[in-house]
Amino acid sequence: MNHKSGFVNILGNPNVGKSTIMNALVGEKLSIISPKAQTTRHRIMGIVNGENFQIVYSDTPGILRPRYKLQETMMHSVNSALSDADLILYITDVTEQTADQGEYIDKIKASGVPVIIAVNKIDLTNQGVLEKIVESWHLAFPQSPVIPVSALNNFNLRALLDAVLEKLPESPPYFPKDQLTDKYERFFASEIIREKILLHYKKEIPYSVEIEIESFSEEKNITRIRALIHVARDSQKGIIIGHNGNMLKRVGTEARKDIEDFFRKKIFLELYVKVTKDWRDKPAVLKRFGYR
Ligand code: GDP
Ligand code: MG
């Protein structure tokens, strides 16, 4: 069998059991290489390795109180979760209605990213009600497997893992299978910076940005990170920096705090903005950034 690997982003409303499911999936046999660092604000990643596969789960901040928060905020987090996913694991539970989630569903469908639906907390319902719930999700996502589980009772999680493996693309592993490396830490540092940019800038700006970790030097009590924020056009440079440098300062401060939480170490973070003209259209640059 060829090797499979990919990024599986876990989405769903608060309290449906996303974290419980991810922990269960990551704990399911096999080795875990990630420290599964968690802070309240940013992503939690869990990496599951098998001989022929590597699944990189991330429990995205997801939708925050969708009924009360601005729709834009909600769609924003969906967009960012969709932009880097090979597969979406959409978690719902037996108390939720598909009808309540119309817009969200449309957005996920429009992305074209394959989806697996997990209906969690089936311990709280009975067979008849569950069948109706599963049926409504089949109608909403005709192409997707709908898998009833109970994360709490560890019920049917193996079927969920099998469904993920089935849909995972063929690819070499993204991370070393047995060790934490510098490369891996760089990746998380750049993801945290990218997240702050997604959070603070509008429209096309976040999608015009690529983060490059230029240097990453670990000293005894501090890690010094120098990161380049590449933008595609001159005009975007000023937007990123902001009036008196205020925007960039804010991104830098917030990113540093989260990176410190993540690595549990003091961080010195330097951010520079660089215009790399039309980088998204230049094969050589894309290759350098790790796109294939
Ligand atoms: P998240 O906000 O989507 O990450 O949800 P959590 O994983 O934090 O879980 C929210 C609550 O649902 C917690 O109290 C869990 O213990 C509970 N929960 C998770 N899975 C199940 C399940 O299968 N059955 C029941 N009854 N409760 C569950
Ligand atoms: Mg959670």
How would you characterize this protein structure?
- The strands form two sheets. A seven-stranded mixed sheet has the order 2-3-4-1-5-6-7, with helices on both faces. Strands 8-9-10 form a three-stranded mixed sheet.
- It has helices spanning 18-27, 71-83, 102-111, 127-140, 157-167, 182-200, 234-241, 246-263, 283-288; strands at 4-11, 31-32, 44-50, 53-59, 87-93, 115-120, 146-148, 210-218, 222-231, 266-275.
- It has two domains: 4-167, Rossmann fold; 185-288, K homology (KH) domain (GMP Synthetase, Chain A, domain 3, 2-Layer Sandwich).
- It starts with a strand and ends with a helix.
- It has nine helices and ten strands.
- It has 292 residues and is an alpha/beta fold.
- Mean pLDDT is 82; it is low at 28-42 and 62-71.
- The structure holds guanosine-5'-diphosphate (GDP) and magnesium ion (MG).
- Magnesium ion binds next to helix 1.
- Guanosine-5'-diphosphate is lined by residues 12, 14-20, 120-121, 123-124, 150-152.
Q: SSE order, as H and E?
A: EHEEEHEHEHEHHEEHHEH
Within the largest sheet, what's the order of strands?
Answer: 2-3-4-1-5-6-7
CATH class of the largest domain: Alpha Beta
Using the CA coordinates, give the radius of gyration. 20 Å
Give a brief description.
This protein is an alpha/beta fold and 292 residues long.
Attribute tags:
7-stranded mixed beta sheet; GMP Synthetase, Chain A, domain 3; binds guanosine-5'-diphosphate; 24% strand; 3-stranded mixed beta sheet; alpha/beta; single chain; Rossmann fold; globular
Ordered list of secondary-structure elements with their pairings:
Blueprint: E1 4-11, H1 18-27, E2 31-32, E3 44-50, E4 53-59, H2 71-83, E5 87-93, H3 102-111, E6 115-120, H4 127-140, E7 146-148, H5 157-167, H6 182-200, E8 210-218, E9 222-231, H7 234-241, H8 246-263, E10 266-275, H9 283-288
Parallel strand pairs: 1-4, 1-5, 5-6, 6-7, 9-10
Antiparallel strand pairs: 2-3, 3-4, 8-9
Helix pairs in contact: 2-3, 6-8
Bound molecules: guanosine-5'-diphosphate (GDP) and magnesium ion.
